[in-house]
Specification:
The complex is a heterotetramer of chains A (419), B (350), C (263) and D (295). Chain C has 263 residues and is of the alpha/beta class. Chain C is 39% helix and 27% strand. Chain C contains eleven helices and twelve strands. The chains are: A alpha/beta (419), B mainly alpha (350), C alpha/beta (263), D mainly alpha (295).
């Protein structure tokens, strides 16, 4: 008895002391071969929580693309390594994740949602760490900029959707304005989307009949009341700034009750075809992909490349089971990979050290990116540049099982509607 | 508390003293001095981990006073931290009050709000009380996220760092010193509350509140006081949290965190200040170790897939807590006491 | 039937509570176990009923036999199924269950469904008051009613041996008498053996056939109840009488005598 | 008017689902005074396993459900034996934290199985609806409501009318006293965990016929289950039913009428505000057992 107590006590003390011992040990640093530089990319996103359908495909895309660069020797002498952290869509885990990635010696961090980059921003500024985000808020891209964005501000994305509605609504034939509304998660993404949509729709009272935003807590499963409300409003179009999971629940509810409104999701509300198909079958209402100026100018080419890379690095059963090809987020992951490629290439061609986060940030703010024939030359949106305000929109349709984007709205400058 | 055989406490003061021997003092001072040198050689990673642990320790100490000492189960500690954090944010950003001045204010405001949610404690007991504090968790976060003009709502707000001259809490090493001092002060306060009249009244209420009332303890007053003090701690922790992240967002304060804080009190050992500190350090440390262990496990079994990381980290974390509770349901502190006792008595069995 | 053979009980692996306790209860016999507070009476009962492990205690020496079977290692419910029913001290009724459900809990180990009704009637026969209170919540019954309920619940088990721990605790003298009368009736009519722990030695000895006196974890005296009642020391310490009928002032009790005599 | 009636109907239907979730909590609480914080995870786990059996092993739905029911009974036995029984006699809070940690393990296992992906079970309940003017009643919700009521009736009968139920109530009151009457406490515990796991399977399946199965289901179980049982009273099945309906209705009306005024999300806090108000008047929930205190 006595010995057991002692033993357990010792083990406990050891457990408590272990962090201290670990602290004294050197942080594990990757030892690159003499000629090779290793760029460690930190990936912080949701891999198992509410938006996992996006995070997983995105991560696979990023990894595949970096592997592709390496295999094709597009940047000689540079190896890539990806370290991931799963934040389970829980903001309280983001700070821990940031620390973890930093400890793993990452050179830059790729992330997704706005709350993730926002939480990391003060620390990133202090540590001089470059963050590539997917979408952003105005607060996030205030000076000093350490967070860069791939996509429009959420509010702009939503505004551009309603812009599309005004362009395509047949006012003569119907003899009325389209009735529109939004349904959002009660979090940063949802609130930003609602703000943009409301500002836009209210600026065009003669073109849109804006009914308002329904806010549901993240994690909500039951959409019976929101669906009923949307139906009672008599909505024609409903834009959902929720990721695909909850949106499919809303669509299930809508289809089960035979409501008439059309649910559309897009912008950075992800396009996870696989799940939508599982739920809605052929009745997928509308999946829209809204991109900022400078990125995805030709979505078709991007999807074609995604097809090649995906088939090269993933087994057919995985592609089928997890539906990477049917998930636009896979494509977004590729774009992150391209961003990394552009930054590193730029740094090397300027004769700078690509493992230095500050150098990469410098490249991000001013570099011309070599498109390699995929994308036309463009500049990194200097945060408040046109990139986040000027948008175009594609509609994604499945053609023979392969998603094909069709351009439906060309450049649309959201700033025009802002006061 | 077991002492060296033959050495007895001969006065009441000595019996309730925190440090009863000179050795304890010396060990304590040396330990603290060593901790103070951490920023000299540790990386920012470890320092900010410590800062995170400081936040947790302060909040858990508050919960320890409410739940461990006074027996009022509270599931809203994380939300009350939210109140503290937003008090700093709103007062410093909207009203231009110095961040330092916000430190006591955060505690006071949180304490007062905590009293509102603690008020049902007079009528409501046990789990039902837990639920009125659970309501606090949801209501506070909802209110904060809807006072958009002040708090920025779900978009969150940035909080300026605390500065004196050139000293700014923005760097993890400076924040480490602030957090360190704050934690020591809060531990001392908690430990001393426990030793006073108030602390003894709390314990009486925990053990049998009807009997305590009969003995002349004003239940309402003391229960409210317990909530005030506990939430004051949460407010201080909230201040520290705001300094630690500098970006506060209502969704950072989750129910899961609140539940874990209760878990830390249990894992540490109910009713002991040292236990509360041990529990906070243990659970946070374990969380981190589980992450590292699962990253390793992920490289050993790469075929499992990308989610092995999360899955293993959850499983390892849960498993250690489960096994720990099976073998020591009375908490770390109890085990620590047994260990000390058997160590002192070595080589004699009894 | 029950043979407690020189048992030693230790708590927390270090605190010796009983040492060398031996007692026997024969078939259909009524036995009293007397002693001062802390003498180890309740612990003895708990050892027999297998409840020591709850308080981190165990029988470290000696044996307990029931119907020729060693039972000191069995669990509480196994012992209960052998036919030993323990009515613990402090009237442990199940508070939120009503009186009848409390009784039904006692019949749980019996498999035949039809007899339960008969058993209930039997218990109501002994305790007519319970029949009126049968839908009342147990926790709100009065002390005497709760005691009846406990005894009734044990009765539902049809035990061969019933262990009663302080059935008279906190009851008025009148109720005390009533409880003992009923116990006596049960003993006569059902043929149940009883081992009764009691502070009220006079009452207990009046109803039982044999008695044991415990002190400091040992059985110090035993004998036929009649003789014990006549025993000078028992009279002095437990009955508070020096001569028949005359009350004795406690001030005159010589405490050393106890030590001299019994150790 | 249509709106009110629609909201009432929705409230009752959704409330039925909440009651269904709460039933699992109440069952464990009634027999062992433990608040099983892992119930949400169990719901999700069994739904996932069913999905995996159907989609990966290509089993027919009924076979998959039978396998999962058997599995859940084993899980119940296992959980009781290795996590709950060692803590018998210890602080209840320790046991609750234990179930909380258990939830983490179950969540981890689910992530291992699901790899973070959503699952959608095939529809096994009647689809379609009745239209009464602007109001419509979905067959699926109705079927779930009916099944919930049947499940409640079965559980109530089990508790009030069966011998095992009586044993469970006795064990909940006092382990030692109950053991001294020959009832095996361990067996009773095991039975109650097995039944709770079976309930988790049934409610998990019913929930996943309405919604996608994913990690959020666990949190949903806790967030909706707890206010319901506290409103109704922790020990009362009838309370869980009534509490579920109250929460469902309150949420619907909160969302329908108050949300537009305060900017959304009010639905989430309505049950908690209601809960605090009701607890002030009835400290042990609407139908909860009042603690009998004698000093």
């Amino acid at each position: 008895m006595k010995n057991r107590i002692k033993l357990v006590g010792l083990v406990l003390v050891c457990l408590l002391v272990l962090p201290l011992l670990l602290a004294c040990a050197k942080a594990p640093s990757a030892t690159p071969a003499a000629t090779e530089k290793v760029i460690t990319v930190g990936y912080l996103n949701d891999l198992s929580g509410a938006i996992s359908c996006c995070g997983i495909a995105d991560q696979v895309g990023l990894k595949n693309y970096l592997q592709y660069i390496q295999d094709e020797k597009r940047i000689p002498g540079v190896k890539f390594d990806v370290v991931s952290w799963d934040d389970r869509y829980d903001v309280s885990r983001v700070a821990a994740g940031y620390r973890y990635l930093l400890d793993k010696g990452v050179n830059l961090i790729v992330t997704m949602a706005v709350h993730q980059s926002e939480t990391m921003r003060p620390m990133a500024v202090a540590d001089k760490m470059l963050i590539l985000g997917y979408n952003t808020s105005e607060l996030n891209i205030a000076d000093p900029i350490w967070c860069f964005t791939q996509q429009p501000l959420t509010e702009n994305a939503n505004a551009s959707f309603f812009n599309w509605v005004t362009q395509n609504w047949d006012y003569q034939k119907t003899g009325r304005k389209p009735v529109v509304a939004e349904i959002n998660w009660d979090n940063s993404m949802g609130k930003a989307g609602a703000k943009g949509a409301e500002a836009y729709c209210k600026s065009l009272p003669d073109k849109l009949d804006w009914k308002g935003t329904i806010v549901v807590p993240p994690g909500t499963m039951d959409f019976s009341q929101p669906a009923l409300q949307l139906n009672q409003w008599g909505c024609d179009y409903v834009f959902s700034t929720m990721v695909n999971g909850p949106t499919t629940n809303l669509m299930k509810e809508k289809n089960a009750r035979g409501y008439k409104f059309q649910v559309c999701t897009g912008g950075w509300g992800f396009v996870c075809f696989k799940q939508s198909k599982d739920v809605g079958g052929k009745d997928i209402d509308g999946l829209y992909w809204i991109s900022a100026e400078g990125w995805h100018t030709d979505g078709t080419a991007g999807l074609k490349l995604a097809d090649t890379i995906c088939r090269r690095y993933n087994s057919a059963s995985d592609i089928e089971k997890l539906g990477y090809l049917e998930n636009i987020c896979y494509n977004f992951g590729l774009v992150f990979g391209m961003e990394v490629e552009f930054l590193v290439k730029g740094a090397i061609s300027a004769g700078l050290d690509p493992t230095n986060s500050e150098v990469l940030r410098g490249q991000a703010t001013k570099m011309k990116i070599d498109p390699q024939g995929l994308y036309p030359p463009m500049t990194w949106s200097n945060a408040k540049g046109s990139g986040v305000d000027k948008l175009r929109m594609y509609q994604i349709k499945l053609v023979n099982g392969v998603p094909e984007p069709a351009l439906i709205t060309d450049w649309f400058d959201v700033t025009k509607y802002k006061k | 508390m077991a002492m060296i055989p033959g050495d007895f406490s001969q006065s009441y003061e000595r019996d309730i003293a925190i440090f009863r021997t000179k050795t304890q003092w010396v060990v304590m001072v040396i330990g603290l001095a060593i901790m103070l040198t951490f920023p000299l050689f540790m990386s920012n990673y470890w320092l900010s981990l410590f800062n995170f642990i400081f936040v947790t320790v302060i909040a858990v100490l508050g919960l320890h006073l409410v739940t461990g000492l006074c027996g009022q189960i509270s599931l809203g500690q994380s939300a009350l931290m939210c109140v503290g954090a937003y008090t700093v944010g709103v007062l410093s950003v909207k009203f231009g009050i110095s961040v330092w001045a916000c430190l006591p204010l955060a505690g006071l405001v949180t304490g007062l709000i905590g009293m509102i949610f603690g008020a049902p404690a007079l009528r409501v007991k046990e789990f039902y009380l837990a639920m009125s504090t659970l309501a606090a968790q949801f209501i506070i976060v909802w209110v904060v996220s809807h006072l958009e003009e002040w708090t920025g709502g779900q978009l969150g707000m940035y909080v300026p760092p605390a500065t004196i001259g050139g000293f700014s809490s923005a760097s993890p090493s400076n924040l480490f010193y602030i957090g360190f001092i704050l934690t020591i002060v809060m531990i001392a306060v908690a430990k001393n509350i426990q030793r006073t009249r108030v602390g003894r009244a709390f314990i009486a209420i925990r053990d049998n509140d009807i009997a305590a009332e009969v003995m002349g303890i004003n239940l309402f007053r003391y229960k409210l006081l317990a909530f005030f003090i506990g939430c004051f701690f949460a407010g201080i922790a909230g201040w520290m949290w705001a300094m630690y992240l500098q970006n506060i967002n209502p969704s950072q304060f989750t129910l899961k965190e609140s539940l874990w804080m209760l878990g830390m009190v249990i894992v540490g050992g109910m009713g002991s200040t040292t236990g509360a500190v041990m529990g906070a350090v243990f659970v946070r440390g374990l969380d981190m170790i589980a992450d590292y262990a699962s990253a390793w496990a992920g490289t050993v079994f790469p075929t499992i897939g990308e989610q092995a990381f999360t899955a293993f980290s959850l499983i390892i974390f849960g498993l250690v807590i489960v096994i720990f509770l099976i073998y020591e349901p009375r908490g770390l502190y109890h085990r620590w006491e047994l260990f000390k006792a058997s160590y002192r008595l070595h080589p004699y069995a009894y | 039937m029950l043979n407690v053979n020189n048992i030693e009980v230790m708590f927390h692996g270090s605190i010796l509570v009983l040492s060398g306790v031996s007692l026997q209860v024969a078939d259909k016999q009524m036995v009293a176990l007397l002693g001062a507070n802390g003498a180890g009476k309740t612990t003895t009962l708990k050892a027999i009923a297998g409840m020591l492990h709850v308080e981190d205690g165990k029988v470290t020496h000696g044996s307990i036999e029931f119907d020729g079977r060693r039972i000191e290692k069995l669990t509480v419910e196994e012992i209960a199924r052998l036919g030993i029913a323990l009515a613990m001290e402090g009237r442990p009724i199940l508070e939120h269950l009503n009186a009848e459900e409390n009784l039904l809990v006692g019949s749980y180990i019996k498999r035949e469904g039809a007899n339960i009704k008969k058993d209930l009637d039997m218990v109501y026969g002994y305790f007519p008051r319970l029949k009126d209170l049968r839908k009342n919540t147990g926790g709100y019954l009065s002390g005497g009613e709760q005691q009846m309920l406990v005894v009734g619940r044990c009765l539902m088990m049809h035990p061969k041996l019933m262990l009663l721990d302080e059935p008279s605790l906190g009851l008025s003298p009148l109720l005390m008498r009533e409880v003992f009368d009923i116990v006596d009736r049960i003993h006569r009519e059902e043929g149940t053996a009883f081992l009764i722990v009691e502070q009220n030695a006079m009452l207990a000895l009046a109803f039982t056939e044999y008695g044991y006196v415990m002190e400091n974890g040992k059985v110090v005296l035993d004998g036929v109840s009649e003789k014990l009642r006549a025993n000078e020391d028992v009279r002095e310490f437990y009955l508070g009488l020096s001569e028949v009928g005359n009350k004795k002032s406690y001030r005159e009790v010589k405490h050393y005598k106890r030590r001299k005599r019994w150790l | 008017m249509d709106k009110i009636i629609s909201l009432i109907i929705l409230g009752v239907m959704v409330g039925g689902i909440y009651s269904l979730i709460a039933l699992g909590f109440v069952f464990i609480y009634k027999s062992s005074k433990i608040l099983n914080l892992a119930h949400g995870q169990f719901l999700m786990f069994f739904a996932y396993v069913t999905y995996t059996l159907i989609s990966q092993a290509h089993l027919p739905f009924v076979a998959a459900v039978i396998i999962v029911l058997v599995l859940s009974a084993l899980v119940g036995v296992f959980v009781e034996r290795f996590t709950i029984r060692p803590l018998m006699g210890q602080s209840i809070l320790a046991t609750i934290i234990m179930t909380f940690a258990l939830g983490f393990i179950v969540e981890g296992i689910v992530i291992l199985i699901s790899k973070g992906y959503y699952a959608s079970l095939p529809a096994f309940l009647p689809t379609g609806m009745w239209k009464l003017g602007a109001i419509n009643i979905s067959h699926q919700y109705l079927a779930i409501l009916v099944l919930t009521l049947l499940l409640f009736a079965a559980c109530m009968w089990f508790y009030q009318g069966s011998r095992a139920g009586l044993a469970m109530r006795a064990v909940a009151e006092d382990h030692i006293t109950t053991a001294s009457t020959g009832i095996s406490v361990a067996q009773t515990f095991r039975l109650s965990w097995v039944i709770a796991c079976l309930l988790a399977v049934i409610s998990g399946l019913l929930l996943s016929s309405l919604y996608d199965v994913h990690i959020d289901l666990a949190g949903y179980g806790i967030a909706k289950g707890l206010p319901v049982i506290l409103l109704g009273g922790l020990e009362s099945m009838g309370g869980a039913l009534v509490g579920g309906l109250i929460v469902g209705l309150a949420e619907m009306f909160g969302a329908g009428y108050i949300d537009p005024l305060v900017g959304g999300g009010f639905r989430e806090v309505v049950p908690f505000i209601l809960m605090v108000l009701i607890l002030m008047v009835k400290p042990y929930g609407i139908f909860g057992l009042v603690k009998i205190e004698r000093v």
